[in-house]
Amino acid sequence: MVYIADTHQPDERDCPFCHATEYPDEQSLIVHRGSSAYVLLNLYPYNNGHLLVCPYRHISTYDEANAEEVAEIGELTQIAMRVLTGAMGCHGFNIGMNQGQIAGAGIAAHLHQHIVPRWAADANFFPIIAKTKSLPQLLGDVRDRLASAWPEP
Questions:
Q1: What is the pTM of this model?
Q2: Contact yes or no for 100/61 (Cβ under 8 A)
Q3: What is the rounded distance in angstroms from the CA atom of residue 99 to the CA atom of residue 137?
Q4: Angle at 1 between CA 118 and CA 31, to 5 degrees
Q5: So where are the chain's domains?
Q6: 110 assigned ligand-binding residue
Q7: Helix, strand or coil for residue 66?
Q8: So what's the pLDDT on residue 132?
Q9: In the predicted model, is pLDDT for residue 79 greater than 90?
Q10: Per residue in 14-37, is it b (16+ CB within 10 Å) or e — as a string?
Q11: I need a surface site. Which of 1, 33, 119, 144 has the fewest CB within 10 A?
């Protein structure tokens, strides 16, 4: 309910994406750190392995990203797709950015791209009847699996 009810948009002082990099990767669910962007698991996933690619800089929209950030966000997205396919056997992806709170960005103040792995049979009756999404793996376990599958630079 905190996630749904909180309408505050963080600045650099209280932004979870800015502060995630200050903690150990396992604690922050960071899968990989690049030079201008990093990859972490979504704390509120739509599906198992739901990743976010974030620039380190606290910027809110894609048009504020510099050329280096745009290139690395794209490269990390490609690698993440390969890692998710190899480590989790997904069949497809939903990839996108919600730009602005009105467009559905939960944290509109810090740019992030969603990479949601999909499987042929990943929908079940839970979301309809129980208003619950079933995720059969713990976030920490998924983070460890994807981090160990991430290729060395």
A1: 0.81
A2: yes
A3: 29
A4: 40
A5: 2-149
A6: no
A7: coil
A8: 55
A9: yes
A10: ebebbebeeeebeebbbbbebebb
A11: 1
Q: Is residue 135 scored above 90 in pLDDT?
A: no
First-to-last alpha carbon distance for the chain, in angstroms, is 39
pLDDT band at 99 (very low <50, low <70, confident <90, very high): confident
The CATH homologous superfamily for domain 2-149 is HIT-like (3.30.428.10)
Which residue reads 């160990």 in tokens?
A: 148
Residues 6+ apart with CB under 8 A from 46: 94, 114, 116, 133
CA distances from 41 to 22, 64, 70, 130 (A): 16, 23, 20, 24
Q: What's the whole-number mean pLDDT along residues 93-99?
A: 92
C-beta of residue 135 within 8 angstroms of C-beta of residue 48: yes
Q: Which two tokens stand for residue 58?
A: 């606290």
φ, ψ of residue 138 to 5 degrees: the values are -75, 145
The residues carrying an active-site annotation are 112
Question: Would you say 114 is a known binding-site residue?
Answer: yes
